[in-house]
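Internal tracking record. Fields below are filled automatically when a chain is submitted to the structure queue. Please do not edit lines marked as system-generated. If the sequence contains nonstandard residues, flag them in the REMARKS field before resubmitting.
Queue: standard
Priority: normal
Entity type: single polypeptide chain
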Amino acid sequence: MRLKIIIGFLLLIAIDTYVQIGFKFAGTNIGEPTLDAAWLTRVLAEPLLLTVLAGYGAAFVVYMTILKYAPVGPAYAASHMEIVTVTIFSWAYLGDTISLVQAIGCCAIVGGVLILAATEERP
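SYSTEM-GENERATED OUTPUT FOLLOWS
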C-alpha cells in the first residue's frame, strides 16, 4: 500500500508541475490580456489550455484517491511539492535565477514533507 501512495504522490507532483508549466506556455502563446474579441479568440484556440484543464481534473482525481489511503497532513504538504519542481524547471529550462532565499524555501518545503512523512503514525 505504501508503494501505491508514493506512486500516487509522484503522479500528482508530475501532473501539477505540468499544469503550472502549461499555464506559463499557454499565457505566453496567448499574449497580454486585452479582454477583446481577438484575445478571447486566442484563448479559445490555445490547445494547451485544454490539456491544462484536463490536468487539473486529473490532479483532483489523483489527490482524492490519495486522501483515501494517506494521512491528511503529509498528503496536503506533498500536494504542494510542485512549487519546488516548477522552480527547478524554470531554472533549468527557462533561464530563471533562483535566489538564496528561494533555494532555502524549496529546501524547507522538501524537508517539511519528509519530516511529516517520517513521523506519520502507521496503523
